[in-house]
Amino acid sequence: MYPFKPGQFAPKNTWYVAANRTDVGRALLSRTVVNTPLAIYRTEAGEAVVLDGRCPHRHFPLGKSALEGDNIRCGYHGFVFGPDGQCVEIPSQIHVPRACRVARYPAVEHGLWLWVWVGDPALADPALLPPLAETGLDGADGLTPHSLIFREVACRYQLLNDNLFDLSHLAFLHGSTIGTPENSSTPEELEKRPGYVASIRRITDAPVPPSMWQRDVYGLERIDRAMGMASYLPGFHAGTTEVRVPASHPERGGELLSWTRVYHCITPATPTLSYYHFAIGMPPGMDPAAMKVALDPVIDEDVFASEEIEKIIALYDGNPPPELMVKSDQNAVEGRRMIAAMMDAEGQGH
User: Fold this and answer.
1) How many whole angstroms from its chain centre is CA 300?
2) How many Cα atoms are found within 13 Å in the side-chain-facing hemisphere of 238?
3) Among residues 74, 123, 136, 79, which one has the least CA distance to residue 262?
4) Distance set, CA 27 to CA 51, 84, 166, 196 (Å)
5) In the chain, where are the structural domains located?
6) The CATH fold of domain 16-123
7) Quick one: which of 102, 101, 107 has its CA closest to 121?
8) Which of 90, 131, 89 is nearest to 110 (CA)?
9) Which CATH architecture best describes the domain 130-345?
């Protein structure tokens, strides 16, 4: 499936963000990860549980059913499943076959999110999760991470990944919010290693973007910005933005004005539906609610572009003409190759 070979959609032997940790509680949460329906909740003791969300009787979604203590009672015919996935009651009969059960998937609370592994459970190694210290999620750098935005996006997840691999689009898609022409014209510094691609642009003496607050706070019209994105494949992107007084300023040159981290979690739900969790790491004194108001329109711009591209792809029955690649696509090409290799290793496609 575009942009991968036929029969390839998304890797399964990997960790994906299923939900914000704070959204997992004593109410059932229904999600889909790589075409796998899930029922998510916390036990009375506080443990996060992720069960297969399809009742094996008549396929009713367990995530749309009812929680009774630590068990789920299917909302269709009342079958009851424990947190280990085993059916413990069938109201219409006394005997409960051992074969009547659903899978329990490996799940880990890591950073701000609950991560799930819907592939081979024997391969579910928490050491494969993005490192907390490396991504700043441990708070040791003085920035506190906050979950801000969640969207269900009507597109294949790789379109959202591609959007984050190549930040030159900030100059145009986000030209009225966070971008300036220099986001496209400034050369990138690239880095890659297995399962990881990253880029950074060091923008000097450029106009303050339309939605940035520094102009009002510091009385500046121009700034230096270092903007980077590190992508942990197949769907976690950790970015940084450092803003300084232009080095050419006679008194304050190089003074740090602000430093933030951003986190984009892209989860494939179905071939044309994705989950997008966005978070930000901020220093003390910054208001998360105000930042959400400022960044909601930015995320909406990314969602708009990705959904519109999905509509174009649909016009070609999912097989659009070849793309014209340019220099700024290097990270996207490398990222796609690495994700495709993950699916090849699983035996996906032909």
Assistant:
1) 15
2) 16
3) 136
4) 14, 17, 38, 35
5) 16-123, 130-345
6) Rieske Iron-sulfur Protein (2.102.10)
7) 107
8) 131
9) Alpha-Beta Complex (3.90)
Cβ-proximal residues to 331 (8 Å cutoff; 6+ apart), any chain? 165, 166, 188, 190, 192, 197, 198, 199, 231
* Average pLDDT over the chain, rounded to an integer: 95
Reading the block at residue 311, the tokens are 């509509």
Token pair for 315: 């016009």
Q: Enter the pTM of the model.
A: 0.96
Token couple for 146 = 């906050």
Record the tokens describing residue 55, joined without a space: 């009742």
Residue at 235: amino acid letter: G
The first and second tokens of residue 46, run together, are 């506080």
27 vs 127: CA distance, rounded Å: 29
pLDDT digits (tens, 9 = 90+) for 22-32: 999 999 999 99
From 32, 37, 25, 17, select the one nearest 110 (Cα to Cα): 17
Determine the Cα–Cα distance for residues 277 and 286; give it in Å rounded to an integer.
20
Q: How far are the Cα atoms of 102, 237, 290, 345 from residue 212, in angstroms, in the given order?
A: 49, 22, 12, 44
What are 155-202's pLDDT values in tens digits? 999 999 999 999 999 999 999 999 999 999 999 999 999 999 999 999
